[in-house]
Input
Amino acid sequence: MFDDKKMANLRRALKRIFSLPINRTTYREIHSAMFNISEGNTEIANNLFEVLLTADTNSEKAKNFPKEELKKLIDEFSISAWTAKDVFEKGDFISLVTSDMIASPNQQVFSNRIKRVDGQEFHFISDIESTLHLLTHFSTRITELEKNPGAKKLLNGYQKELNAIKSRLEAVISGKGN
Output
């Protein structure tokens, strides 16, 4: 049984873990802390971790933990734990892409920023030629999905987005772009 003292120890461990920026190892640190606090009982550690991630104090997995202390733990750490899981699983994936157009004396350039799920940001400048190069590269990659039956099925779920891109490009080509 998990008592209030163990919950207090876990809260201290999580405060220490989340006092640093969330990175790829944070998820494992949380798991390790729960495993240590549960004295090596994998089932209890996994149940507690799932309850923390789902924030469901009424689940069957939550029944072995002091309800009030569990609620405090969830209120304080659930979102951070969920973010740590997301970073662990998808840290390299793109979270946000932004661009600003900058007028230089001889040409138009874009100041581009890409932010990954793990918070890392990348900045690069592109002109029209390099922007078209990127567009060509990624559109070629998308067309390669047509050759893979499993990927083709996934791609079919993005028809709305592909048609929107097609419409924008047709407007630019016809000279009727926004």
Summary: The longest strand covers residues 94-103. The two ends are 64 Å apart (CA to CA).
